[in-house]
Specification:
Length: 244
C-alpha cells in the first residue's frame, strides 16, 4: 500500500488515496466529523473517535503523551521532520503489516500540524467491525482462544514487528474470535532477538494486572501456557520449513 502526501505550510497529510479524496489542513478537525461521530473510546494514548465513513467506520486518534510529561505538554512533540513524526511512522508501519496480510487496522490517514518547534498529530484507521479488547473479554468471563492468540503473535514476530506496548487492551478479538493488534505508535521492524520474549512478558504483566482489578477473574496460568505452547509450535513449524 503506497500512501500519498498532501500538505502545505505547517501541515501534512499522508493518506490512502482510495479512501481519502479531499486532503486538506483541517481534515482531522473535530468540527469536520461532528455530525458523523458514532462513539468514543477512552483507553490508550490519545482520544479516539469513531466516525461513519462510507460503508463502515473509521477510528480517529489524536496523539497524546502519557506519564509526567503528558501532564505538562499533553499533545506536543519535538519537530524532527514529517517522516519522523509519530503519525507518519505508524501509518507506514501499519501499511506494511496490512500489505503483508497481518491482522492490523487498515491505515486511512496520518496528519501533523506544526506549532513552532513542536507538532501535534492524528491517525485514522478503518474500524474492525464487532471487535472488542481482549481485556474486555477477560472481564466478561467470555471464552477466549488463547491458542490462536499465540499463533498470531508469532506471525507478527516472524515478520519482525515489534509492538512497543503489547498489552490486553491493544489486542482486539473480532466477532469470530480472531485476534487483531492495534496502536503501533513507536512500533518498528527489527530482526529476531531477545525483544520477542520481552514483548510476551509485557503482555503477561498486563494480564496479571487485569487479574488484580476488582471483580476480575484470576490470572490463568493454564491459559498463558496454552498461548506460549501455540506460539512455540508456530515458530518451530517455520524453522522446520526453512530447513533443506
Amino acid at each position: 500500500m503506497s500512501g500519498v502526501i498532501a500538505g502545505g505550510p505547517g501541515w501534512g497529510l499522508l493518506h490512502d488515496p482510495a479512501l481519502v479524496t479531499d486532503p486538506r489542513p483541517d481534515w482531522f478537525a473535530a468540527e469536520a466529523w461532528q455530525k458523523r461521530v458514532t462513539g468514543h473510546a477512552g483507553r490508550g494514548r490519545g482520544r479516539v473517535r469513531f466516525v461513519a465513513a462510507g460503508d463502515g467506520q473509521w477510528a480517529l486518534r489524536h496523539y497524546c503523551r502519557g506519564g509526567v510529561v503528558g501532564r505538562l505538554v499533553s499533545d506536543r512533540y519535538a519537530w524532527l521532520g514529517a517522516e519522523r513524526s509519530r503519525a507518519f511512522r505508524e501509518w507506514r508501519l501499519l501499511a506494511h503489516l496490512h500489505a503483508a496480510g497481518l491482522p492490523v487496522p487498515r491505515p486511512v490517514a496520518a496528519g501533523w500540524t506544526r506549532h513552532g518547534a513542536f507538532y501535534s498529530a492524528d491517525l485514522a484507521t478503518v474500524l474492525i467491525p464487532g471487535a472488542v479488547p481482549l481485556s474486555a473479554r477477560i472481564a466478561a468471563g467470555a471464552a477466549i482462544d488463547w491458542r490462536r492468540i499465540g499463533q498470531v503473535l508469532q506471525d507478527f514476530h516472524a515478520a519482525g514487528a515489534c509492538h512497543a506496548d503489547l498489552n490486553a487492551h491493544n489486542i482486539l478479538l473480532d466477532a469470530g474470535g480472531e485476534p487483531w493488534l492495534l496502536d503501533f505508535d513507536r512500533g518498528h521492524l527489527r530482526p529476531p532477538g531477545a525483544w520477542q520474549a520481552r514483548n510476551l512478558e509485557r503482555l503477561r504483566r498486563s494480564l496479571e494486572k487485569i487479574a488484580r482489578e476488582p471483580s476480575a477473574p484470576p490470572f490463568s496460568a493454564s491459559a498463558w501456557a496454552e498461548l506460549l505452547a501455540s506460539y512455540d509450535a508456530r515458530r518451530d513449524l517455520r524453522l522446520r520449513a526453512r530447513r533443506p
